[in-house]
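Hi, here's the filled form for the chain we discussed.

Project: internal
Contact: R.S.
Residues: 233
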Amino acid sequence: MSVPESVAIIMDGNGRWAEAQGKPRTYGHKVGAENVETICRSAYDIGIKYLTLYAFSTENWKRPKSEVDTLMSLLNTYLNKCMDTCMRDNMRFKVIGDKSGLSRKLQDTIKKLEEKSSVCTGLTLVLAINYGSRDEMRRAFIKAGKKLMDEGRDLAELSEEDISKSLDTSDIPDPDFMIRTSGEERLSNFLMWQLSYSEFYFTDVAWPAFTPEELKKAISVYENRHRRFGAVK
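And the returned structure, exactly as it came back:
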């Protein structure tokens, strides 16, 4: 089996990793943010074309305000740094999620970065920010339904293709492979539509400690699996 074209990662364990070292949770988020660039470069070197990272979920707003403020600050710092990184590494950048729930400053930075990197042809980095799969599907159903009605079609004609074209990920392929770090074995409201036929890989290694070697280890597991679909035995 070849290297997966599209990989999704739930970057879990930043806070617990920091606490295990006797440091504040915010330290784990800082190190985790720094690890994104390292893993992006490794993914590109391996041959992955699309990398989707779960950066901030719709549920993350429920965390303590100090932690949310730190996460937003780290995102803003990373995105501004990414302006140069994208052009240097020929990396296209995209954000999925409800961007209207973010600050105007963050929205403007995202728009500028997406536009500037749209000409890049290397790895496509997709960050899920203020993202929840149920919310994405709700928005997609509304968008697809409105389009049908505008075209004079009946809602009963709504197809899976109509919905897929209305998702935040309409212009990127569904992930072949999903990785979750730090031991949890659930999707946590992440890409539930898109991951329907993906292979899953769970590791106890926390995201800040997830090295290029760990990524290669995960990919080797994928390459040794025998994927079967539908009625194929």
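Let me know if anything looks off before we file it.
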